[in-house]
Amino acid sequence: MAKKRPQTRATRPQLTDGEIPVVGAREPCPCGSGRRYKACHGRAAAHAVTELVHRPFEGLPGECDWVALRELVPAATVELPLKDGLPEGVPSVTLATVLPMAWPALRRDDGSVLLGLQNDTASGDISRDLADTLQRALTAQPGTPVQARRAPADGPRLQDLLDAEGTFEPVVHSGFEFWIPDTENATPEVTASLERANAAAIPTVKLAGVDAAYWCETPEKNHLRWVMPHPEEQLLDALARLHAAGRSSLGEGTRLVGSFRAHGLTVPVWDLPSGVGADDVEKPAAEFAERLAAALASDAPLTPEERRARGGLTNRQVTLS
């Protein structure tokens, strides 16, 4: 039998790591290996980004509220102050939890910018992706949405663009009417998107007396979800001390049921009876904040009862991001 002639491939010039551009995860890696980018040089890039964004909103005013608006709140807006001021022709920049048609950003007809927070991100670094979207929105043509893309690996982050001395004051809305300043001229697609979003929105209220605590109403029971800035281990110890002492509730019929992690922060969750509204937990939440501050200040070893309480809280902890 004739021997098969060995197959040869045309060689491609090999790029150094520093010369390899970022491409889509499923595209062939530009290095010429023949593998997809995500299985080749994209793997190292993704790992580096993951390490970078354990707390993507760290250093921004209102970090806890950034996390809440990303994970908990259906409809809210916040005015964003830029470090270098607003460009000419841009009267305002507003962060929104969600935008119509899941747009990453929108430059309105009047030149103002809406930046969506709850979109999927391509790089894994939410801060860098949002900063890239914001920069493109500032120069987009009025009346046009900004499409998603992979942010440059060396691009700025929100911490580079926003005023670190500015305030972050969310306004929680009952629906998404803030999308459309002129409902009569909205397209059918945007109107349908608005109707779907309003139907799915869970009633939510931000407490006034404590930071980053959000009451919400569900058909079965109500909840309070409170994003806290304290180191996780220290916070869990403090919650365990209060729980073991029977001082972790927010009043009769309420119960601390656990917590979840989100973007490097811990979010304790309480179950509330259906009849307990946001106003009803304002005072109990403020009193709990005082008890928690005292428990956080303690460095005494946990008692056996407190260790059991801590184990119960840890077993009911869920990681969202």
Q: How many helix segments?
A: 8
**Average of pLDDT:** 89
* Shape type: globular
Within the largest sheet, what's the order of strands?
A: 5-3-4-2-1-6
Describe the largest sheet: 6 strands, mixed
User: What's the helical proportion of residues?
Assistant: 25-40%
3D architecture notes:
The chain has 321 residues and is α+β, with helices and mostly antiparallel strands. It is 30% helix and 16% strand. It has helices at residues 41-52, 63-71, 126-138, 158-161, 188-200, 232-244, 278-297, 304-315; strands at residues 76-79, 93-96, 105-107, 113-116, 144-146, 171-172, 204-206, 213-217, 222-226, 255-262, 265-272, 317-319. A 6-stranded mixed beta sheet has the order 5-3-4-2-1-6, with helices on one face. It has a 6-stranded mixed beta sheet with strand order 7-8-9-11-10-12. Strand 8 (213-217) and strand 9 (222-226) form a beta hairpin. Helix 6 (232-244) packs across helix 8 (304-315). The longest helix has 20 residues, at 278-297. The protein is globular, with a radius of gyration of 24 Å. Mean pLDDT is 89; it is low at 1-13.
Any descriptors?
six-stranded mixed beta sheet, single chain, alpha+beta, 321 residues, disordered N terminus
Quick recap:
The chain is 30% helix and 16% strand. The chain is built from 8 helices and 12 strands. Helix 6 packs across helix 7 (278-297) and helix 6 (232-244) packs across helix 8 (304-315).
Question: What does the secondary structure layout of this molecule look like, with pairings?
Answer:
Elements: H1 41-52, H2 63-71, E1 76-79, E2 93-96, E3 105-107, E4 113-116, H3 126-138, E5 144-146, H4 158-161, E6 171-172, H5 188-200, E7 204-206, E8 213-217, E9 222-226, H6 232-244, E10 255-262, E11 265-272, H7 278-297, H8 304-315, E12 317-319
Parallel strand pairs: 2-4, 10-12
Antiparallel strand pairs: 1-2, 1-6, 3-4, 3-5, 7-8, 8-9, 9-11, 10-11
Helix pairs in contact: 6-7, 6-8
